[in-house]
Amino acid sequence: MGKSLDLQRRVFLKSSGAAGAVAGLAGTFAAPGEAAAATPVHCPAGDATPPALSLGRLGTLRVGEPRSFHYPDARSPCLLIRMGMPTEGGVGPNQDVVAFSQLCTHMGCPVSYESGLRLLQCPCHYTTFDPERGGAMVCGQASTDLPRIDLRHDSKTDIITATGVNGRIFGRL
Ligand code: FES
Hints:
Elements: H1 2-16, H2 18-28, E1 53-57, E2 67-70, E3 77-82, E4 97-101, E5 112-114, E6 119-121, E7 128-130, E8 136-139, E9 148-153, E10 159-166
Antiparallel strand pairs: 1-10, 2-3, 3-4, 5-6, 6-7, 7-8, 9-10
């Protein structure tokens, strides 16, 4: 009877994978004073300097009508916005052109620009960011500001160029 019960228990553990789970937990929750057999985690460095990207002529950008682009790669949507008044980090003759990652720093939903409020808002959990204050979080669930895209404006050609990312894009290292 005892032997049969023991056999049944072992069959259950083996078939359910519970033995592996239990073993895994034992490693995770080491007793105090016990040295944990830590496996080193390698975190590859992100691209330190993303390539510059031309975003077109400033003269074609209307106040309050954002232009979408992707930067520093195709998985990273961003918004280029002409605010119509000097803005923190802004480029151009009026220092009013700014750009931000569109990925909310809470859980990565794409924010949109509400021109009436002059704010960037996330439709998922309503976090709000202020493009006039460098993408600072105004309210909501996120814990960090929206990453600002560094811009450069060439006064001769009127071309705006994205030159870098200021902050951590959601889901990136
Ligand atoms: S994903 Fe934007 S507030 Fe949650």
